[in-house]
Amino acid sequence: MRWLVGVGLVVAMLVFGIGVYHAIGFLKGGRPAVHKPNEESVTPLPGTMYVIQQGALYRFQHGNFTQLTPESGYMQPAVDPRGGRLAVVQRKQNYSDLYLVSTSGKVITQLTQDSSPQVESNHWSFYPRFSPDGSRLFFDFDPKDGYNDYKVDLAIFAGPPDAAASSSVQWSYPNDYTGGDVDPLPLRNGSLVYVKYSIDLQFQVHSQVWLQKKAATDGVPLTASDLDCGQAALSPDEKQIAMVCRKSSNTSNELDVASFDSTTGQLGPPTTLVSGVLAASPTFSPDGKTVVFLAPATAGAGFQLWTAPASGSSRATRVTFDLGLDASSTPVWVG
Amino acid sequence: MHVRVWVIAAGFLLSGLGGVGAYFLPVLQTATSSGAVSGSVSDLNRVDPPTTPFNVLLLGSDDDSKFAPDRLNTQSMIVLRVDPTTKQATMLSIPRDLWVPIPDQGVGKISTAYQVGGAQAAIAAVESNFKIHIDDYVWIGLNGLVSLVNKLGGVNIQITNPVMDDFYPADLSATDDPYRWYRVAVLPGPQHLDGVQALQYVRSRHGDIRGDFARSERQQQLLLAIKAQSSHLNVADLPALASAFDGEIKTSISVDRLRALMSIANDYTGGNIHRILLVPPYTSEGWAAGQSVVFADWSQILPLVQKNFA
């Protein structure tokens, strides 16, 4: 009996040693800690912000995050300037739809019906953005080519917010097989700023901030093709544009702010707020003096909220520390 | 009685220390090789960092159930040259449809060399056509890449343009019908991608006018992101990483060689890693033997390769 206990103890010791080995492996091999936003309390910013993490919509107010929806594929919120509601994308595997939701996250209306049982007959809807008077909703949609199922390029459409899908008008016509036009920013004068992609004869991809005065017209570039600028944001007074320019780099970029004259369509020389990082999805504060953007603090880490003075007068400040915010969803900042 | 308790406690303690020691032994060994700990544990298996340039052939295959495990093509072929003396690295992507003579196989797409003769045939095809020497190879399958990226906690990638594909193969799971497909939309701008998303990014080709060349560029981009993300790893992480792959990674690089390479990995941070794609005029698209292929202009390619890889 005694030797059985002894053997059992030796086996238990060996199992313990192996367990320690694997426990260290688990701890060291684990992902960097990413917390849910509502688990983190941070330095307050004025006003209210909406952000996305793991497919859930969060409200950031008084230094605290409140989860408004479940983690169900929500992304790219946009606030109705008339107040009380947001447009948001809900993404599934083969399609995405636009919804109007209340500021507490409750679904009011489903705006698009993009799902289909046949895989290639599904559609994408992305980047909802209200016009400044709230009368129209601009968004991205993938109009299919009836002759070639491989051609899937996003184009910008606009329609009344409550009937965006049925009464929408196609605004932009993307360059074929580039992925399309994205990030619509409607102006008060009825024009539209967005990002257009092109691929040159040397197979280099370029993105340009583009200005278009009316639907289905050509438009003009605001930035040079070799700057590779995108992810544009307009200041509330429409006198500045923030944008991310990668300048041929695939591994880093810079966040620039330039003066903008929406009447003449002239963009001034840019001021660089941050460079050598992976800045994403900038947006202006309600007073236009601050730019908030997303970027990882270290290589490969999750995307955090940062702020920088729009004037470029001082360095960027990190607001959050352990989040994994959705970098393709521009934060919405309202007063 | 008290003595027995102490003996048992000491047994568990020693066993636990053994587990700790087994895990961190490679760290100590690498520390000695990189000179971080000089002399104190000089009897451990010492590895010296590489001092001469070397070429590694990186191979990636679709290894889903559409293919017999021993009959895989290489969808991705990248030659990586590392020069420890100049601290420069260069990646050359070889188009998978490059129409070349393959030793002992005749003329065909270079991606088929692996199918017939495994890694050695792929190496022979690269060496004979590009006139360079390959020192080592690393092969990775679909799930291996997904596991690698997930084990690293995801990667941050700057997506240059929307990657749209309505016919992306739904073949990751062995239980799924490998001939089904689903839709992919990778939106532009910096993104944090998990393993499946990263694979979609480097594998999708239908919606991009550059086709396979776009994929090659994205594959190089992912390699840089993996390199950046793994910079915080050390050899003590290798057991956990290795256990995740389940045969989805094969390599000629020994553990000692890998430890030696890891000791210089942080010398290469992006700015000194150069990337070459064999886009036109180095290549042109056409047809051969009833297949869509890529023809090489060797008069332009060989000087480029000799300059960077010989």
The count of β-strands of chain A is 25
Give the largest interface: A-B, 73 and 64 residues
Q: Number of DSSP helices of chain B?
A: 8
Assembly state of the chains shown: heterodimer
Strand content of chain B: 25-35%
Q: In what range is the share of β-strand residues of chain A?
A: 35-45%
Overall average residue pLDDT of chain A: 93
How confident is the prediction overall: mean pLDDT of chain B? 86
The number of helical runs of chain A is: 1
Question: Strands across the major sheet of chain B, in which order?
Answer: 11-6-1-2-3-12
What kind of sheet is the major sheet of chain B?
6 strands, mixed
Describe this structure in words.
- Chain A is mainly beta and 335 residues long.
- Chain A has one helix and 25 strands.
- In chain A, the strands form six sheets. In chain A, strands 16, 17, 18, 19 and 20 form a five-stranded antiparallel beta sheet that branches. Chain A has a four-stranded antiparallel beta sheet with strand order 3-2-1-25, with no helix packed on it.
- The longest helix of chain A is centred in the first third of the chain and has 28 residues, at 2-29.
- The model of chain A has no long low-confidence stretch (mean pLDDT 93).
- Chain B is α+β, with helices and mostly antiparallel strands and 310 residues long.
- In chain B, 37% of the residues lie in helices and 25% in strands.
- Chain B has helices at residues 2-34, 113-130, 142-151, 195-203, 212-229, 238-245, 255-262, 298-309; strands at residues 54-60, 76-83, 88-94, 99-102, 106-109, 136-140, 155-159, 163-169, 181-186, 189-193, 249-251, 273-277, 283-288, 291-296.
- In chain B, the strands form five sheets. A six-stranded mixed beta sheet of chain B has the order 11-6-1-2-3-12, sandwiched between helices. In chain B, strands 4-5 form a two-stranded antiparallel sheet.
- In chain B, strand 2 (76-83) and strand 3 form a beta hairpin.
- In chain B, helix 3 crosses helix 4 and helix 4 (195-203) runs antiparallel to helix 5 (212-229).
